[in-house]
Amino acid sequence: MGVRFLVLVVLSVALMVVDARFTLLKPVRSQMSLVLMQSYWITDLPQRLWQGVASQFGSRTELVAENEKLKTENLLLQGRMQKLAALTEQNVRLRELLNSSALVNEKVEVAELIGMDPNPFTHRIIINKGERDGVVLGQPVLDARGLMGQVVELMPYTSRVLLLTDTTHSIPVQVNRNGLRAIASGTGNPESLELRHVADTADIKVGDLLVSSGLGQRFPAGYPVATVKEVIHDSGQPFAIVRAVPTAALNRSRYLLLVFSDSRTPEERANDAAKAQQAEQNGEPPPIIPATVPKPAPVAIPAAVTPVPAPAVADPKTVKKSAPVATPAAKPPAAVPATTRERQ
Amino acid sequence: MASTRSRNGWIIWLTFAIGLLLSISPMPQFMEILRPLWLALLLAFWALYMPHKVGMVTAFCLGLAEDVLYGTLLGQNALTLTLITFLVLSLQQRLRVFPMWQQCLVLLVIFGLAQLAQLWLSALTGNRQPTLALVLPGVISALLWPWVSYGLRGLCRRFKIN
Predict the structure, then answer these.
(1) How far apart are the CA of A54 and the nearest CA of chain B, in angstroms?
(2) What pLDDT, on the 0 to 100 scale, is given for residue A312?
């Protein structure tokens, strides 16, 4: 008996090491999960049945009330959408002026929560979309109000999502008001995130919205993450203590959105966006624009690299005006008394 | 004999399947921390009264299933369940003649040891549980033992599992 115990212990330790270090056991795990993950579906069945029954026997007045509520909500959202089109267009134009990469439209797909992780010390959920639905490792997950977390384990038809509030999770964020960057770490409490290493003098206030900054290359930029709940300045501490409440309903949402962002690099995205814009503006002949695109670079480079020759070139023109060149230097003193005189 | 064994084996496996379902069934947040170690309880009972049917290999396989369900490292729960079964099997002769409350106490110690092993293993993988609340499932399981034991013994008599 002791020998058998020893063999099993060694076997399980070996399995753990292999599972932690190598990807050898991933197919085994996914095959096992194919069968075992059905049990999450089974434990979710009473809830599903209850919802089905409730929707069958929902009274007419309730349905009418709900319908009306949804209609008003829809109206409000559509009202906001009207402005959104104009704002998006404006944003694209401003980004063009700044020569920064174009906005990307992420695709989303709806997934449903089918189970919670039974371990109370981790914040993970199980959703009903998996590898066969195109989900990838590290994919961001949203709900209607904000970011929820990321996919950490893939199974054929299900996947496990690590929530923002897990103690092992951190997300790069920035304050929406002024762009101040920080890192929001989970605390193990589903209603609280903590901002680490925020300087005591940083401009951050209670009520500030924190959005994802996209710096970690994992979450897309600009999704709401949390609102600041309290900022504590303790002179004994090197950093301010900042706590925030996640905007997403981490322990209540049943329907989630999986974000499919493209894996292209920013340069490729910018090029593709430029091409798409050219395709839109078919009135102008396309070959001219590629010719103009390299042009700004040669023009810009002399301007930047040769600031010294530029005055030298300019000198011959100003040789005649050598006296006026000296006068500008003399002018300001003349101007200063003028202003002082005005002041007097 | 062989026919009875094949006829009754499925009941044991059915209890294990129910145990697996119970160990992942959704619970209110505040009760999550008190979730009994259902598989450990069932394994302890069957190892105590059916040692020729349920042994450490069964415990190992169930532990692997639980690992897949929980998303922990493959082998983590397998190790703790094997440990529990080993301890129960080695104390089996004495445990069977103990009165119920004494069985509870011994099982409390066994479950506590298993939870301690679990804590070490999860600390190795980087998500250490922040409190000592990890012994609570062990306590709850030990308190549940009399009911589980009576219930399963009734099941044994009803279906004449041997």
Answers:
(1) 20
(2) 41
Find, in chain B, the residue whose alpha carbon is nearest to that of A4.
B56
Residue B111 domain flag: yes
The helix/strand/coil state of A152 is: strand
Strand, helix or coil for residue A24: coil
Say yes or no: A34 contacts chain B, CB-CB below 8 A. Answer: no
Q: What interhelical angle do B38-49 and B135-159 show, nearest 10?
A: 50
The DSSP bridge partners found for residue A154 are A159
Separation CA B131–CA A188 (nearest Å):
12
Q: Is B88 touching A (CB cutoff 8 A)?
A: no
A153, A131 in Cβ contact below 8 A?
Answer: no
Taking the C-alpha atoms of residue A222 and residue A173, their distance in angstroms, rounded to an integer, is 9
Nearest CB to A119; choose among B57, B63, B70: B70
What total of structural domains would you count in chain B? 1
Q: Chain B: nearest CA to A149, how far in angstroms? A: 16
DSSP structure class, residue A259: E
pLDDT tens digits, one per residue of A182-207: 999 998 888 999 998 999 888 999 99
Q: Assess if residue B27 is contained within a domain.
A: no
Give me the residues of chain A with pLDDT under 50, please: 284-344
- Any A CB within 8 A of B56 CB: yes
Positions of E strands within A53-189: 107-116, 124-127, 140-142, 147-154, 159-163, 170-175, 181-186
B80 lies in a domain? yes
Among A16, A28, A39, the residue with its CB nearest the CB of B76 is: A16
Q: Let me know how long chain B is.
A: 162
pTM exceeds cut of 0.90: no
Give A119 to chain B, closest Cα distance, Å.
7
Q: Report the residue from B74, B86, B126 with minimal CB separation from A16.
A: B74
Residue-range definition of the domain harbouring residue B57: 9-19+38-159
User: Between chains, do B33 and A120 touch, taking CB under 8 Å as contact?
Assistant: yes
* Contacting residues of B for A32, CB less than 8 Å apart: 64-65, 68
Structural domain contains residue B28: no
Q: How far apart are CA B69 and CA A65, in angstroms?
A: 41
CA–CA dist B106, B88 (Å, integer): 9
Residue with tokens 């209850």: A50
Residues of chain B predicted below pLDDT 70: 1-7, 127-128, 130, 162
Q: Are the CB atoms for A184 and A190 separated by under 8 Å?
A: no
Q: Does A137 touch chain B (CB under 8 A)?
A: no
